[in-house]
Design a protein that fits this description.
Elements: H1 4-8, E1 13-14, E2 20-32, E3 38-43, E4 53-55, E5 60-61, H2 63-66, E6 70-73, E7 83-93, E8 96-103, H3 108-118, E9 124-136, E10 145-157, H4 166-173, H5 179-195, H6 205-221
Parallel strand pairs: 4-10, 5-10, 6-10
Antiparallel strand pairs: 1-2, 2-3, 2-9, 3-8, 6-7, 7-8, 9-10
Amino acid sequence: MKNLQAEFGERLVTLRDGSSGLRGQLRCEVKAAPGENELDFIATDESLDRYHEVIRLDGWKTANYLANPVVVDSHNYWSVLSILGGTTKLTIREGAMHNRVRFAVDNPAGRISYKMAKAGFIRSESVGFIPLKWENGIGPNDPNRTFTEQELLEISLVSVPANPGATVERALKCGAIDRCDVRELVELLQQAGEQTPRSTVVSSPRELLTLARSIAAIFKRC
């Protein structure tokens, strides 16, 4: 495997198992799935991303991810509050990655995420992966880099706790999510922030309380 540090430098991030890797957005089409509280996320194509790179679909190695296929909020692993659901089916076929998610609706964040995705307010997934093989572009019309083999370690949705601004407000106003859902999430975040020890490394109680206040402010405006 090529030297990741030399190739990617500051782009490297720590993934959920402690490995160094990259994160990237997959724009998705969201469809209803047959199971209860399930949705299908279908990556559209192998188009260029914002780094002018391409990820080949036939290069995905998914065994490690499927050993613990949780779907979390914005790559946050600091608390069970961030677990939005789990992948029940992952296939790569017909030019797309198909990812079926069963949402953890007993978690207020999971319930809100399910309703927002179903209503069209969440349209992308974020993947964390270790690049194993790639080809650098040569010509002026080539991608800067084409990943030909990569190991999938995480799948995230960009949902409520990460960016509770205009999207949540719009979802509330149009009735996609309920006021009681938001109230439960605020209360849960407040309790977690008050009960989290200040010495905890993986999470800041101040962060949780700030998040609760931000969402509460949106709740009051709607």
